[in-house]
Amino acid sequence: MSRATSEQHGDVRRLVLDAAIKIIETTGAESLSMREVARQAGVSHQAPYHYFKDRSGIFAAISEEGFTALANAFKSVRQQGTGSGEVAAKAGLIAYLRFARESTGHFRVMFRSDICGVSTHEATGAASEEAFNELLEMVAQTIGASINPTDAMTFALMLWSNAHGLATLVVDGPLARKLPPEANLETQLMDVINLSAHMVALQAAEMGLVPAGQ
Amino acid sequence: MSRATSEQHGDVRRLVLDAAIKIIETTGAESLSMREVARQAGVSHQAPYHYFKDRSGIFAAISEEGFTALANAFKSVRQQGTGSGEVAAKAGLIAYLRFARESTGHFRVMFRSDICGVSTHEATGAASEEAFNELLEMVAQTIGASINPTDAMTFALMLWSNAHGLATLVVDGPLARKLPPEANLETQLMDVINLSAHMVALQAAEMGLVPAGQ
DNA sequence: CCGTTTGACTTGACATTGTCAAGTAGTACT
DNA sequence: AGTACTACTTGACAATGTCAAGTCAAACGG
Which nucleotides of D are covered by protein (CB under 7 A)? Predict the structure, then answer.
């Protein structure tokens, strides 16, 4: 019954991971307990240790999944991203924000070096490396193919900061709390994204950069 | 001996808070334990409960301190900030980044709604409110006095996102890890900040905005 | 076909944690 | 002198992370 066994294998690992993601989404990474995860996955309190070295191992695995998904999101933008730099920048920002909001459980963990230890967990580090490379690629291809590496790096970090800040502020609450009640959050977010994307286009134009497609 | 008593009072509260901040700076908020804090403050494991309702009460108090400090930093920028919008934007970004790096213990906690519960802790909420108002004020005064409230809000959120993203990426590690070894982190940060500030100025110019001083 | 190894767990144990409850020692006020 | 209050301390308890050891079926080598 080797197939059943390996199915079971994948099952429990996935069950544990999904339970953990759900807990992080609803009550935050802080409150994730190994035993509660096991309980919700319907296994003994020690079963997760078979798949993950310790608590931070679960976080690292979730983080890895997240970075891979983010890299794919960037790749999508890059592949279908034709048109002006403004459109591309907007698409990138939207993709980042969407990822953070739809995969909050992953997002909350990915940038917490204190709990998932990218430096110790090799696969997680590699996934995050790849996501960053995709971002650089996206910048080069959609903002300006003629950009030099130094400027590309600075552009990428600026865009990353912008997207990451907005996502963090939305996902972790403070932004929604600050808005006046009459303001619509979605509208406000799109305003911010449009402003950022437009600014990036102005800057790119000033530097004489042209997207790869044009 | 009432003076000595109240000094003692302030002493223990401060000691507990400082011990907590140091722990968060060095090993992250995750690993902060009530008992370790008490141990490092040299008091019994239950003494902190006299000053803080529970673990999240400590986080809330640190968060409150942080928001007040941040509001003051914004105020400084606004008060001494004359000159172009670009200079002002740059000063604001630098102030935010400096705060995050110098008060990492505070910064790490301030945007973690899961552990410090801004909504439940009234004073913390008020402090964060004030910091945001200072940010709006700063935007209005340094970017464009003639700006309408809606645009001011969008500008403020964009700047906040930008600064917050950069600060988070620096403080929590991923940015430093991504940089090629030959790149100087400080130089790279200034490049990103200059780029952002310049973009903001381009945008403000396009909108016909003028700082209050001019 | 039997013994051994291996994978996928489970049960048990232990130190540590957050926090409730109950004490205690000194000061302040009446 | 007695009461109330402040600023703690000591003790207790359930829950947690994790180490160690056990179980039990499948795979495998002879």
Answer: 6-12, 15-21, 25-27
The answer to whether some atom of strand C lies closer than 7 Å to the beta carbon of A31 is: no
Q: How many angstroms separate the CA atoms of B157 and A145, rounded?
A: 30
Residue A116: closest CA among A36, A35, A55: A55
Structure tokens at B194: 């200059």
Q: What is the DSSP letter of A34?
A: H
Q: Which residues of B touch A129 (CB under 8 A)?
A: 178
pLDDT tens-digit series, residues A171-207: 987 887 888 888 899 999 999 999 999 999 999 999 9
- Segments of A87-132 assigned E as strands: none
Contact criterion met (CB below 8 Å) for A185 and A74: no
**A117 secondary structure, DSSP code:** -
Judge whether residue A198 contacts strand C, using its CB and a 7 Å cut-off: no
Residue B29 is classified by DSSP as G
| Residue A9 predicted with pLDDT over 70 | no
Number of A:B CB contacts under 8 A?
Answer: 156
Q: Which residues 149-208 of chain A have a CB within 8 Å of chain B?
A: 150, 153-155, 157-158, 160-166, 168-169, 172-175, 177-179, 183, 188, 191-192, 195-196, 198-200, 202-203, 206
What is d(CA A35, CA B107) in angstroms, rounded to the nearest whole number? 30
0.90 surpassed by pTM: yes
Q: How many angstroms separate the CA of residue B116 from the nearest CA in chain A? A: 11
Summarize the confidence of residues B93-106 as an average pLDDT.
Answer: 97
Query: Which tens digits make up the pLDDT trace of B21-63?
Result: 999 999 999 999 999 999 999 999 999 999 999 999 999 999 9
Give the Cα separation of A46 and B182 in Å (integer): 45
